[in-house]
Amino acid sequence: MENEQKKKRYYRRTIDLMFLFVLLIVYIYAFYKAFNFSMLPDKYVFMALMVAAVIYLILFVLALQRYPTWFVVIKRIFIVLLCALLGTVGFFLRKVESTTEKIATVNSTAQTKLFILTRSDSNIDSIEDLQGAVIGYQNGSDVASATYMKNLIENEVSGTQAYDYLDYTSLYSFLTNGQIDALAISEQYYGMTKATQEGFDEKVKTIHTFEKEAEQVENKIDVTEDVFTVYISGIDDAGSPDQMARTDVNLLMIVNPKNNHVDMVSLPRDGYIPNPALNGFNDKLTHTSLHGIQNSITSIEDFVGIPIDYYARISFTSVAQIVDAVGGIDIDVELSVCSYDESQNRTHDELESHEGQEVVCAQQGENQHLNGAQALVYARHRKTEGYGTEGRERAQRRVIMGVINKLLSLNALTYINNLLEVAPNFIITNMPSDQITSFINHQLSDFQPWTIHSLISDSGINDRQQVASLSTENGPYDVYLFSQEEIHEIMNAYDGAKKLMQLKDFSFDLDNLYENTPAISDDPNLVWSSMSGVVY
């Protein structure tokens, strides 16, 4: 009888030690991920490790003692739950890391994949079959990857014809309708196109995959210490944000990480500025993006006089997706708006015909709770007389502020998983992934509330002028003429953040308020609000 009890105790202890061994493996996995996860400050990881070590020691001691069966069962259930929790944490950390790399068009990963696509019914099944084929290459935001693939293909296959175009969305359409035979596309944009194009897997196939060493980008800016500027570009078309489309949203975020302050500058879409892609002739700001995101950045930098360090680009579809991902937003709604639901991925023809679309309304009032579809309807409305483009831009700022407030709230962690699902498909940025992680790590290390100050371009005037992108026969067109004062205000915000001026050092001359401000552009082609009334 005594021997039988000893066997039971031995058997029970062996099972407990096996449970602890599995827990140890999970510990190693989870904390390996945590220590290599650069977003998490080391002090938090060490604290968690200490707590985990104490728990493990207690469980180990308990495994060596005799306890009632019910206690042993509870202990084992606790170990299983702890394993599940730590395993989930490890998986989640890897998911965050992967998502950050996907949305960053510039990252520090060792390798990236490049794909060659053809139509599913095509006779082209391998790279050798590309002889004489017309291959589409993107020569916009992903031109480096396209050039790399073009050189590889031309070295392996003779007689191919290159078809260059500015965006992958159009190139994918050219592929599926037979205008080109194959499409060369990088890994990031492959995933984005797959997520935004209906029937992707049925319409195309991958015939070859290249691997490319990712370029290591030298970061000249320390986003934890230096002032930096982010250009947020929101295009007015559905689908992938890599499209060369007009921009509805043009925001500059002047970020001061030392003082936890952001100056958010809203630039009117109809702002009248020189377009570098059209020999510097004046155009609407919204049209500059038709020649690529870098063209918009150059035009804004030259006009406003401050550098733009990074950009983040979204498509209007993502507004609804992101708002839903954070559980909706609470904002003031200036007027009641009803329109068709455009929040889902649909073809252009379906959006134009409103096929399968429901009517969505946003009700006027303070602190209204809006879901994604309602926020999109409100952010895009401009038809009401007296509301127009200016009203829409106010609504867009409110929606963006609503999302930012949600992300800065104490409940932000509950939204992260949802954001990780949608972000890679609808957001692209050229901020390197290591800069993103450094910024988040810095904020988590010493979390302080942020202040946000809005700078609104409203001291200029609406006018009618010819624009470089449109025919003069149908002009002049509605534009917004900036005042020199509002440009000075933007430059002051950036210059003040860079200098980190202390109050004791602050001084100004009432006779020359802009004495310490960098001079605005002296381009003779610029048309200011004081020059309105004459078509230039």
Walk me through this protein's architecture.
The protein has helices at 2-35, 42-63, 69-103, 143-156, 168-176, 187-196, 200-203, 285-288, 293-304, 316-325, 348-353, 372-380, 388-407, 416-426, 433-445, 484-499, and strands at 111-119, 134-138, 161-165, 182-186, 204-213, 228-235, 247-256, 261-266, 272-275, 281-284, 310-315, 329-333, 337-340, 359-362, 365-370, 427-429, 451-456, 461-465, 477-481. By secondary structure, it is α+β, with helices and mostly antiparallel strands. The protein folds into three domains: 2-103, no CATH class; 111-213, D-Maltodextrin-Binding Protein, domain 2 (3-Layer(aba) Sandwich), CATH 3.40.190.10; 228-531, LCP protein (Aminopeptidase), CATH 3.40.630.190. The chain has a six-stranded mixed sheet with strand order 16-11-6-7-8-17. Strands 3-2-4-1-5 form a five-stranded mixed sheet, sandwiched between helices. The chain has a two-stranded antiparallel ribbon with strand order 9-10. Helix 1 runs antiparallel to helix 2 (42-63), helix 3 runs parallel beside helix 14 (416-426) and helix 10 packs antiparallel against helix 14. Residues 246-408 form the Cell envelope-related transcriptional attenuator domain. InterPro entries: LytR/CpsA/Psr_CW_biosynth, LytR_CpsA_psr, SsuA/THI5. The chain crosses the membrane at residues 15-32, 44-64, 76-93. Belongs to the LytR/CpsA/Psr (LCP) family.
